Every structure is written in structure tokens, then in C-alpha cells.
Amino acid sequence: MGKTIIISNRLPVQLQISNGTITAIPSVGGLATGMKSVHSGGDSLWIGWSGLTDEEIPDDIAPKIDSALAEHGSSKVNLTSAEVDGFYFGFSNRTIWPLFHYFLEYSEFELKSWEIYKAVNQKFADAILEKAGEDDTIWVHDYQLMLVPQMVRAKRPNISIGFFLHIPFPSFEIFRTLPWRKEVLEGLLGADLIGFHIYDYERHFLSSVRRLLRLEVSFNDIYRDNRIIKVDSFPMGIDYKKFSDAAKAHEQNTADQQSDLQQRLNNHKLSTPDAKLILSIDRLDYSKGIAKRLNAFEYFLNKYPQYKEKVRLIILAVPSRSNVPQYQLLKKEIDELVGRINGDFSTVSWTPIWYFYRSLPFHNLIDLYTSSDIAWLTPLRDGMNLVAKEYIATRTDKTGVLILSEMAGSANEMNESLLINPNNFEQIADALYQAINMPKEEQQERNSHLQKRLARYNVEQWANDFMSSLQAQKDRDAANVSKKLTEHRLNTIVEDFSKAKKRILFLDYDGTLAGFHVDPQKAGPDKELYQLLDALNNQENTELYLVSGRDKDTFTKWFLPKKYNMIVEHGVWISQNGEDFRMLENVKNDWMEKIRPVLESFVDRTPGSFIEEKNYSLAWHYRKTDPDFGNLRANELNTVLTSLIANDDLSVLNGNKVMEIKSSNVNKGRATVRVLGEGDYGFVFAIGDDWTDEFMFQELPESTISVKVGRQKTQAKFYVENTKMVRDLLKRFLV
Ligand code: GDG
């Protein structure tokens, strides 16, 4: 069992330097807590930036930092201040953060910051590579490190890598605007498991992968080269016990144990016993919708003036990224709004808004949560929003109302709260009204459901769930390896090949000998392939057959001069020793008149699709269409054709992004078996990549060495990963 390596931008410890000595204090954030079960003892390591740039660390202190961090199972990545600027304040927070939160207009696409982002990601990857063993499990966190999985994978193809994104993954329409969109996707796809908070982000990600990389996606599995990458949602929880225990302890505090803030809150309650406290806590970030919330509060006071002097809004805005210009502007806007609203509405005994721009210690956070009647959280976009969960966890008597934006990931699991659209002031004002007037019993009823759920799926559960899913992915991988054509198995096959007196090789063309091309007519053989096939064809006692669904004219042009044996159109035609094609099966094609117009109507209505007409079959190709739309249309066509061809001796073959209609008694299996009957072969080999090749794998004799290209469900005995491996394998038959 290897160790677990956690990687995040920041380490879960804060460094303090004073008088030449270093202290590392563990942080108490949600992630650090959640990882406790994963990051414990000597079998785990956390890699990240310490928060101090190289310039800020005096030379004589550097080694001391390493040992201080090592005591907390941590190891640092060194960053210069220029790197922090380009990577963190630049690309991460001026490009990805706004883009992924749908603030397209704030996103800056600067080549220089992208270059620094790449270089810093490489630094993190190198730090992992330096520490990681083959059996280790790597868990990479968040949007600052999206290229790390592939960078590690490139050097350690078999290591287990998980990635979790803490922020939303935006819709394809937003994501596609990023100039480096493919690189980012490819970076992430280095992982074995990619986790998001909610299904919507997962769905957006899969859609981008299919559209931009054109990869095959089946449910939540992505097929890429030789690997299957799993995508799933894991809604992050909180350390429920910590918050509920803190709230319980808080209740027991005697008057002199109470904080100044708590005493102020108590005074407020005493002076206006029927007034409600409304709480809003966020990092000061435009995604959190603080300015809009203030405007909505003003709207509420105007719509329901009876609540003037009866409500008080406490805003805690925690300073964040204050050297990014948008954040400075936002700060100014909020300061002004608070000033104006307080100026407009205050009375001698009442200020509607209490505004704190600072970070408060944990016990003050508990003061606020436990004293507020309503938590009002209205982000415009939020990956999850843990504050909502924390508020509910501190409500020991189950009272309190949560008003939550439906744009927060947590809204998915917190249906019992009052969900609002943060742009709808009318709805927000009414929700505040409802919250103020909600009977206690109803509050308790709603919160008891929420509390049960949050207590069960806490942050530890979340982390364990992710880790076991990553482990399951590793096991699934291992289970598949039994069919992989390993070096050892290949040696035995080559030995059998050499011993056999007569050998026959059935080779599919597209997707096997040559890669796919969006335009099939352009996917002609390359020089290297001709050389390989020539050499195989010239082998003593070896018969080579190209077995393809392609039309005979194309193969005549490409291969007839080479005198390779060929079976085309799935077995309608055969050519041996350079002779012209002759019919292998007696088939008709008069049905085409009926089917062609149907396919044409699909082509007209499905941009990017086209018909390939062969002598005895018709194929509708949809590789170039929008992937979702293409699949939808393929299903539709399937239904139409099934009823149309019911009385004909026809069948529909669903290939790789192609549907082919042809005579039922023609297939590659039947054709190859007929050829096999013409001789006595001691070694039979068949290789192919798609569904139509399965006929060969099924119908050829049991002793056949059958090989599938790509790791998919198959009747073949072995698989190889891609067309390059096919060529390498065939070269082994050259003696
Ligand atoms: C990102 C995603 C996702 C806040 N003020 C103080 C304070 N806090 C603590 C809260 C809470 C945390 O900070 C904030 O977490 P959120 O989830 O609300 O928001 P982000 O910081 O934007 O986090 C977010 C999260 O990652 C996890 O995946 O939910 O969507 O944006 O725990 O309690 N803590 C203290 N003083 C404060 O003044 N001590």
C-alpha cells in the first residue's frame, strides 16, 4: 500500500517567522479538516505553496522551513513573487475564476499569465514526481492546478491520480471562449477520477470533453487512448461535529466568557426583542453577489416598510485577493452602498446594516451563526457554499431560516431552505418576509431534515468517498489488464506464429491499421503502413487479408496494385492475389432506392453528417456532427429504419459514429470463415476496433488470436491500446 499525496495551491499550515525562528500552525479550513482522515500519520504527504515567496524567505531560514513543514506532513513548492503574480493572481484569479463563475467580461486572456500558469503547474508536478512512488495515490485540488494530472501522468503512466474541482465547471458555451481550453481539458484528463461538487458541473465538463476533444463518453466514463477516466460528483460537506459542538459549548458560556461581539449582539436583542438578525457571510468576491444583496435589502425595506427598525443585516465580508483590480472596485462599491443605505434608512435608534470588512476568529463566527435568525446567502454563482451548511449545523434548537441562492452548489442538497434566484428582488423580498414570519415549528421541521443530511455526509465522508472511488477505479483498471496484450503474452503468440506451417491474418483497416479521419476519403494509407503490409504480405506461408466495410473502389485504388488480399463492404466482395474483385456473397441492392431518401432527409436535418454509398450498402456518417445531436439523430434513424426494413433481409450496423444498412447475411465473420475454409491454417489472427469486427471475433474458430483495438467490451481475447500499438504488434510477425 503506497502513501497518499495531496496537492493544493496552499498548504494546510500557516508559517510565522519571528526573530529568525519559524513556526508552522495548522490551518482550520474546511479542506484541511476534511483531509484529516486522508492526511494522517506517516503515510501521507501534502504538497503546496507555503504562502511565502522566495523573496520573502531569508536564505538561512529556508532549511528550517522544510523541517517545520515536515512535522506537519507537508512539503513546499517554492514560488517567486513573479510566479505568484502570473499563476495565482493572474491566470487563476483573473482568467479561470471569473470565467468558471460566468463573469465572462472579467476574464482576461493573457498569454503571459498562461505561460506562467503552465510553468508553475510543472513545478507542482515535479514536486510530486520527486516524492511519489509507483504505488502512491495522488489527489490534486482545484482550479489552480488543472494541468498537474497530465504532467504527472506523462512521467508515471500507471500511478493513481484523482482531481477535485472546488468551483463550478461552466457550460460548454462559456468554457469554449478560453483560448487554452483544450490544454486545460487534456491536463485534467491525466487523472483517473475527476470530481465535481454537483452533477451539473460534471455534465458541463463531459459536454466540453466530447465537443472539444471529440472523445467517446459513455455515461460518466471517458475513453481516452488506453484509459478510462471516471467523472463523478461528490458534494463537499463540513466538519459537522466541530460546528455543532462549538454551538453547544457556546450556549454554556457564562456572561463573562462571552466575546465582545456576543455582548453587542445580546444588547441588540435586549433593546429590540422582536427584531430579527439577518446574517450574510462571504469572502469579498463578485461571485458572492454582495452588492446585489444590498440592493435587494433596500428593495425589501421599500416593499415592506413595516420592517424598518425590525430587522438588522449583518454583513461579514472577508478580505480576499485584494490586489486584483475587480476586488478593489467591488470593495469600493460595497462600502458606498452600505453608506448610502444606512444614510437613507437609519433612525436615531437603528442602523439597518452592520458591516464588517475583516476576517473574524472562529468563536466570533459561532457568535454570529448562533445569534442570527436568518442566514441570507445569495451568491450569483458558487461551487458549493459551505457557510450555508455551517449555519444549519450551529442551530442546536433547530430554529433559524436559511435563504439560499439556487446558483450555489449547496442548493442541490438543501431543498428545505428558501431557495431564491439572486437576480429576482421581488422573490428575495418575499423570501425575507416569509423567513421573518415563519413559525418556529416549520423552521424546526425544515432544519431537522437538513441537519440529518449534513451530519451524515460530512467532510470526512466526502473525502473517504472520493478516495474509495479512486481506489475502485484503480481496481477496475487492474481487472481489465487480464486481457491486455502484455509482452509476455505477445511472446507466446509470436512463438506460435513462427511454429505454424501456414498462417492467416485478418486485419481491419479504419481505426486499426490507420487512425480515424473526419473525412474517410482522406484517410489513405501512409508510406510506413505500405512498407509494413508489403513485408507481411511477402512473408513465407503467410496470407494477409484486409477486411473492411469500405467500398471496393477505394480499396482497388489503394491496395490492388499491391496485390494484398481484400474483403470489402463487410464481405460482399473479395480480391485475392491482385485479381479484380469478385462477389463473395450474392446480394441485392434494389432496396437502396427506398432507404436513400430517408438517409438524405437525415443529412438535410443534421449538419455535418453525410451518406457514403457503397455497391451493396449505404452508410450514414455522423462523426462531424455535434456529438449530442448526432447521437440523438442516430437513435431516431435507428427507430425509423427498424420499422422500414422489417420485411427486407437487411440489418443496421451501428459502427463508430456511422450507421450502415446492408444485407443481413453479409458480415465480416461470415466472410472470414469462408476464406478460412479454403486452407489449413495453423495460426489464425484477427484484429479490429469496432462493432463490425465483433462478427470476426465471434465466428472465427476458438483457437484464433483475436485482438481488439481500444479498451472496450469485446469478444476478442486481447486488446491493444491504439493504432500505433497495432503496427508494433504486426512488426513482431516479421522474421
Ligand atoms: C470555495 C468555493 C466551495 C468565512 N469567513 C470567515 C471564515 N469563513 C469560512 C467559512 C467557510 C469558508 O470560510 C468559506 O467557504 P465557502 O464554501 O463559503 O466559500 P469559498 O471560500 O469561496 O470556497 C466554494 C469551497 O471552495 C469548498 O469546495 O464551497 O463554492 O468558492 O468554511 O466558515 N472563517 C473564519 N473567519 C471568518 O471571518 N474563521
Q: Would you write up a description of this structure?
A:
Helix 4 crosses helix 5 (148-155) and helix 9 crosses helix 13. The chain folds into four domains: 4-233, Rossmann fold, CATH 3.40.50; 240-456, Rossmann fold, CATH 3.40.50; 483-585 and 666-731, Rossmann fold; 592-663, Trehalose-6-phosphate phosphatase related protein, domain 2 (Alpha-Beta Plaits, 2-Layer Sandwich), CATH 3.30.70.1020. It has a nine-stranded mixed β-sheet with strand order 5-4-1-6-7-8-11-10-9, with helices on both faces. 42% of the residues lie in helices and 20% in strands. The radius of gyration is 32 Å and the shape is elongated. It is of the alpha/beta class. It has 25 helices and 29 strands. The model has no long low-confidence stretch (mean pLDDT 92). It binds GDP-alpha-D-glucose (GDG). GDP-alpha-D-glucose is lined by residues 30, 166-167, 236, 281, 283, 316, 318, 359-360, 362, 365, 382-387, 390.
